Amino acid sequence: MIIRGYENSYVDTGKYGGTKEGTAAYYRNYPNIFANEKRGWVDSNSEGTLDLSEQNATNLVTGSTQASSKIKITQTYWQKSMATDGSDFEDEIYYNLFISNRGTYSTYWLASRCVNASSYARFGVRFVNSGSVSSYTLYYSDNSSTSVSVSVRPVVTLLSGIIVDTRDKNKDGSTASLAWELK
């Protein structure tokens, strides 16, 4: 999905991918997994190994820490409201995966972490609800947190070289016999 026009005056570029450095005490708290990410810096340490939303270990990295001097975040939050007929999609696969529901899905988590720069750093997880992809903030850099009860819909990440073939319009991916081909 192409992210167009998401603007944020709190980051240096004013756009998705821009950065913000926080040195105030209320801006230096972070969830522990953040220190392992390539797009986050804690006290000038940018040694993280995890790509955006990557987590290879099955154990959860929990808890939070306060940086001694600063954190630097990369704006990875975005949101998109989508037409329920799929007319605003560059690629039909996103409509089929996120919106087309042959029924009604409850709000569900999308396994993808994100960070939103504002007056506080907001660490969240994306969700899909009523034709919109957005994020719930679960932890704030002032060391406060929220909890949300949302459904889980399995999402599978494929290597970039794998192509999902959706040309056969008799298949919709809803069952094994109607599955799209992976090439």
Could you walk me through the main structural features you see in this protein, from its secondary elements to its overall organization?
With 183 residues, the protein is mainly β. The chain has one domain (19-182). 4% of the residues lie in helices and 28% in strands. It is built from one helix and twelve strands, in the order ββββββαββββββ. The strands form four sheets. It has a five-stranded mixed beta sheet with strand order 6-9-8-7-10, with no helix packed on it. Strands 1-5-3 form a three-stranded antiparallel beta sheet, with no helix packed on it. A hairpin with a 3-residue loop joins strand 7 and strand 8 (121-129). The longest helix has 7 residues, at 92-98. The model has no long low-confidence stretch (mean pLDDT 81).
Strand order within the widest sheet?
A: 6-9-8-7-10
Q: Compute the number of helices.
A: 1
Taken in chain order, the helices and strands follow as EEEEEEHEEEEEE
How many beta-strand elements?
12
Distance between the termini: 20 Å
Query: Structural class, from secondary structure content?
Result: mainly beta
Q: Roughly what is the average pLDDT, rounded to an integer?
A: 81
Low-confidence stretches: none
> Biggest β-sheet, characterized?
5 strands, mixed
Gyration radius (Cα, Å) is 18 Å
Overall morphology: elongated
- What is the domain tally? 1
Strand content: 25-35%
Kindly state the percentage of residues in helix.
Answer: under 10%
> Looking at the chains present, what oligomeric state does this protein adopt?
single chain
